[in-house]
Amino acid sequence: MQSTKSRRKVAPNTAPGTKTSATDNGSAESADKLDQLLLSSAICNNEDIGPFIRKAFTSGKPETLLHHLRHFARSKESEIEEVCKAHYQDFILAVDDLKSLLSDVDSLKSSLSTSNSKLQSVAGPLLDSLDSFLESRTVLQNVNLALGSISTCVRLIEICSRSNYHLSRNNFYMALKCLDSIETELLDKTPSSTLRRMLEKKIPEIRAHIERRVSKEFGDWLVEIRVVSRNLGQLAIGQASSARQREEDLRIKQRQAEEQSRLSLRDCVYALQDEDEDEDDQHDQHDAVGLSNGLGNDGHSGGFDLTPLYRAYHINQTLGLEDRFKQYYFENRKLQLTSDFQVSSMTPFLESHQTFFAQIAGFFIVEDRVLRTSGGLISKMEVENLWETAMSKMCGVLEDQFSRMQTANHLLLIKDYVSLLGVTLRRYGYPVDALLDVLSKHRDKYHELLLSDCRKQIAEALAADKFEQMLMKKEYEYSMNVLSFQLQTSDIAPAFPYVAPFSSTVPDCCRIVRSFVEDSVSFMSYGGQLDFYDMVKKYLDRLLGEALDEALLKLINTAVHGVSQAMQMAANMAVMERACDFFFRHAAQLSGIPLRMAERGRRQFPLSRARDAAEDMLSGLLKAKVDGFMTLIENVNWMADEPPQSGNEYVNEVMIYLETLVSTAQQILPAQVLKRVLQEVLSHISEKIVGALYGDSVKRFNVNAIIGIDVDVRLLESFADNQAPIFSDGDANQLKLALAESRQLINLLLSNHPDNYLNPVIRERSYNALDHRKVVTISEKLRDPSDRLFGTFGSRGAKQNPKKKSLDALIKRLRDVS
């Protein structure tokens, strides 16, 4: 078979004569020819002739286009003929070849048909088996895929169910772990797009739900922890108060041991003390462990539960929100602390201060626990910053409230609670020196207020005094009014009813002073200062020396009008002297210093002015009373012919009064006070006797009158000697010395050698109480019996009396000295 030649594209030829005619016929024909050539070229090159058609119709000359097409067809017919003529022989040869192959093709066709029949008969079962195999394999693949999908879905459903179970049980951490497992392991393998879309939508919703639930629980905890903090603070401060009370009890036992050790009971007492100390130590340890674990004294939970906080922190860590939660927690706790600082102006601070400080104490106890156990939720520096803020605010509140307070007891109550707050928070490592500095700063103000209160109480107690001895019918009254202030003079209990030598003013004032000492020690103690006895003693001296002494002086000068009242006041002052000793011992014991150190620093009696005023008032009233009897001295016969045998009238009256006075006074006045008063009275009587002889009312007197005065003085001296059972012999002699001036004057006037007075040694030994001016005046009044009227007529020429001569020499010598 011969291959045919490839068909050639024949471009239309242009006759030479056309070009010539175009040149000749003008530009119109040339354009027509050009269009024809372009159309022929486009058809030959199988290009689109649409533009030519549109141009022909646009120009309105479709006939020209049709003419060109017909012309092109005619030109191609001749070309076709030429081609056919050129390939005619090849075509004939090809037909012959095809005819020769026809028989071969038929045989091949039959052979192929037979082979096809055999192939179809053999391959049919195989194709069926293949189709079954392919179908089974497809089914197997589908089943395996279905099993894998089902297994994945079953595991997914199980985890979802577990997550729902944990959510229903509020076990959010496990629920979040289930969600994380779904996201990381199963979500991409989930065959169901619907299930995958549902999970992609629900997982963020569940996380948001968990976050909301945890936030709500944390918010509820924040609300609850405020109440818990207040209760926890009150519990902690109460335990500090109990520990302080146990320390006070231990001090009391130690003081009792010191007293009993003097009775050789030291071993027994110390054994008991050690046992009590062990018990107290165990109690303190139990309290400390209980507080650190958020427990009360009974061992049960006191509501101090940080589980919601830890849970919220853990969940937020799991959610990847740890830093945000830390900031959220710190800001909320800071806001709570700021709100705790608010002091209500509607409620007195005295009523709200315990709640105020307990709330702050509980807050920082909780924060200490969170700091130690939360694993980084809050840092130590943040807690310190909160504490500095709280300390600054508390100091400001205390400064403001203390500046407004005008009652010492209110200030003491707040100070005690603040000191307990300091003890409580110091156990947790918080510095409290600034609080203690505020307390120390207001120490003087507190004592000024306390002194003011005591002044009012003392004034009220003294105003209620009836100047009557106190009657005690029961033993408890005696213990409360006498033994509690160590006013007893004997360890033997008296019989009841018992009449005390003092009035009700004494125990009332003692109670006021003792309360002052205890309040002062209470304020000074637990304030960071260990040795504060000197400060307590200073304020106690002010109370006794300024308030009580001045009040007693005012009472003595304004309210005492009779001897019985003055005597009662003098008795009261004697008892107050013993009470003052008790006050300083009591202050030393409460301050924790040995009594020997307190006694070593003892000063004089702080109520000495009131004591002296009371004794002076009593002495003055007694002197005034005695002056009434001493007016009877005017009835003395100064020129008596014979000396009186039993004393003059005035001295008898004075003796009766003095004996009555002593019998009454010795029941309430101490011996020393009575001695001093009697000394003043006897000295006054002596002065009155000398004054009568020295005064202008007595112009002259004789020896018989002096002998009568000597009898009077002897009666007074015997009265002094008779007081020896009440006083010691030395005190009785001191009473007699109160009569020294009158006695020495009488001895001088009755002496046979009065000029011995001029001898300095004798004068110092026997006449040291006499004033030489009085001696001169009185000696000049002494007349000898021979100096009576007309006595010189019978005695003229008689020898002068030596005593008279000596007396005249004495008078002359003393006048020369003067």
TrEMBL record:
User: Which Pfam families does the entry link to?
Assistant: EXOC6_Sec15_N, Sec15_C
Q: Which family does it belong to?
A: Belongs to the SEC15 family.
The UniProt record lists the Exocyst complex subunit EXOC6/Sec15 C-terminal domain at 435-781
Q: Does the keyword Transport apply?
A: yes
Question: Highest taxon of the source?
Answer: Eukaryota
Query: Where is this chain's protein located in or outside the cell?
Result: Cytoplasm, Cytosol
Keywords annotated in UniProt:
Cytoplasm, Exocytosis, Transport
* An example Gene Ontology biological process: Golgi to plasma membrane transport
Locate the region Disordered.
Answer: 1-29, 275-294
UniProt-recorded name of the protein = Exocyst complex component
Regions of compositional bias (Basic residues) in chain numbering: 1-10
Coiled-coil parts of chain? none
